[in-house]
Amino acid sequence: MTAAVIDGKAFAAKVRAQVAAHVAKLKEEQGLTPGLAVVLVGEDPASQVYVRNKGTQTVECGMASFEHKLPAETSEAELLALIARLNADPAVHGILVQLPLPKHLDSDLVINSIDPAKDVDGFHISNVGLLGTGQKSMVPCTPLGCLMMLRDHHGSLAGLNAVVVGRSNIVGKPMAQLLLGDSCTVTIAHSRTKDLAAVCRGADILVAAVGRPEMIPGDWVKPGATVIDVGINRIERDGKQKLVGDVHYASAALVAGAITPVPGGVGPMTIACLLANTLTACCRANGLAEPEGLTA
């Protein structure tokens, strides 16, 4: 068996096209332009690239992009004051504070100062609670992207056994909640799980989000399972830098029914879902119907 490749790059392009079409309709029919504000503190190179890509794709979808680049020594009071201004700005529908923040800033305090309705990362404690209790919330972008790809591949997920390897607040926990919401039977596995290999082999859907390169080999994968690899790890192989996932792709692809590659799988969906969340936030703020297919 050779697994079908779930092309996240192509799927993300489709999502961005849907977002752009909805934005154009909002402008024409309501005179509304969704706006996304991204706040970057410091000069982390990876974060700078990521923020630049977000800004470019925001504008390409017809949205307003507001970038706030602050020096690394910015005080907590200054950052919270900026967030308060963005919370009050009707032109801003989504606010994203790029993580990680410099060590002198309290990330939890900063994230929880964002208006939950504008929290397009889905990290605010109110959104975490709403998601966990099955209520309408802003959903973290990476798990939302994974869910979209799974729905597209399977149609209904009801009754499938799903194993999420990793229990982070950013991916593992919200991913499990989303799969529960789609009526999967869900197991969260982690570093302390007994016989992790056996747990993984029971999965119809296997989501790997642990941040350990190629930790999950092909013989941990149930024949025909769908494998969603969230990991992005930089390793050196044959004297060259290479990006690999948390799953050993070559061996898993011989067993799985479908698999996301790294790069080009889950990664592109994260920004696409950020744009979808900004559109959703704009619609909710104005009492308009939410775009179909772009929410959980």
From TrEMBL:
What residues does NADP(+) bind to?
Answer: 166-168, 232
Reactions mediated catalytically: (6R)-5,10-methylene-5,6,7,8-tetrahydrofolate + NADP(+) = (6R)-5,10-methenyltetrahydrofolate + NADPH; (6R)-5,10-methenyltetrahydrofolate + H2O = (6R)-10-formyltetrahydrofolate + H(+)
Q: Which UniProt keywords apply?
A: Amino-acid biosynthesis, Histidine biosynthesis, Hydrolase, Methionine biosynthesis, Multifunctional enzyme, NADP, One-carbon metabolism, Oxidoreductase, Purine biosynthesis
Q: What's a BP term from Gene Ontology annotated to this protein?
A: methionine biosynthetic process
Q: Which InterPro entries match?
A: Aminoacid_DH-like_N_sf (IPR046346), NAD(P)-bd_dom_sf (IPR036291), THF_DH/CycHdrlase (IPR000672), THF_DH/CycHdrlase_cat_dom (IPR020630), THF_DH/CycHdrlase_CS (IPR020867), THF_DH/CycHdrlase_NAD-bd_dom (IPR020631)
For this record, an example GO cellular component is: cytosol
EC number(s) per entry: 1.5.1.5, 3.5.4.9
Judging by the UniProt lineage, the source's domain of life is: Bacteria
Q: Which residues form the Tetrahydrofolate dehydrogenase/cyclohydrolase catalytic domain?
A: 6-121
Q: Where is the Tetrahydrofolate dehydrogenase/cyclohydrolase NAD(P)-binding domain?
A: 140-284
Transmembrane portions of the chain: none
The record's GO molecular-function terms, alphabetically, read: methenyltetrahydrofolate cyclohydrolase activity; methylenetetrahydrofolate dehydrogenase (NADP+) activity
Pathway named in the protein's UniProt entry:
One-carbon metabolism; tetrahydrofolate interconversion
Q: Which NCBIfam families match?
A: PRK10792.1, PRK14186.1, PRK14188.1
Q: What does this protein do?
A: Catalyzes the oxidation of 5,10-methylenetetrahydrofolate to 5,10-methenyltetrahydrofolate and then the hydrolysis of 5,10-methenyltetrahydrofolate to 10-formyltetrahydrofolate.
Note the subunit structure: Homodimer.
Name the family the entry cites.
Belongs to the tetrahydrofolate dehydrogenase/cyclohydrolase family.
Q: Which PANTHER family match?
A: C-1-TETRAHYDROFOLATE SYNTHASE, CYTOPLASMIC, C-1-TETRAHYDROFOLATE SYNTHASE, CYTOPLASMIC-RELATED
| Name assigned to this protein | Bifunctional protein FolD
Q: What is the lineage of its organism?
A: Bacteria, Pseudomonadati, Pseudomonadota, Alphaproteobacteria, Rhodobacterales
Which gene name belongs to this protein? folD
